[in-house]
Design goal:
- This protein is α+β, with helices and mostly antiparallel strands and 83 residues long.
- It has one domain.
- The chain is built from 3 helices and 2 strands; from the N terminus they run βαααβ.
- It has a two-stranded antiparallel sheet with strand order 1-2.
């Protein structure tokens, strides 16, 4: 087993840490356009004052409205909000 490299990140009150699998930002609509990382970031910024659960719900809702079709890829997310 190799060495595992770790990193520390300082978070201030109100900061949001988001880790999403590609199932969110690669979700395509019928014309094959993907939701994209840029749209994920816009949703995060627009909802940064909300709690972690509400932020995740906002991302999921935005992606579903954009694509309007079933996602075949897995979707996993971790949202951490420093309070």
């Amino acid at each position: 087993m190799g060495n595992i490299e770790t990193q520390k990140a300082s978070m201030q009150t109100g900061d949001v840490f988001a880790l999403l699998t590609d199932g969110f930002y690669e979700w395509e609509r019928a014309d094959k356009e993907q939701f994209g990382i840029e749209r994920v970031v816009k949703v995060l910024i627009a909802n940064q004052e909300k709690n972690a659960t509400a932020i995740l719900k906002a991302i999921r809702t935005a992606v579903e409205k954009f694509a309007a079709m079933k996602q075949s890829d897995d979707m996993t997310a971790i949202i951490i909000k420093k309070s």
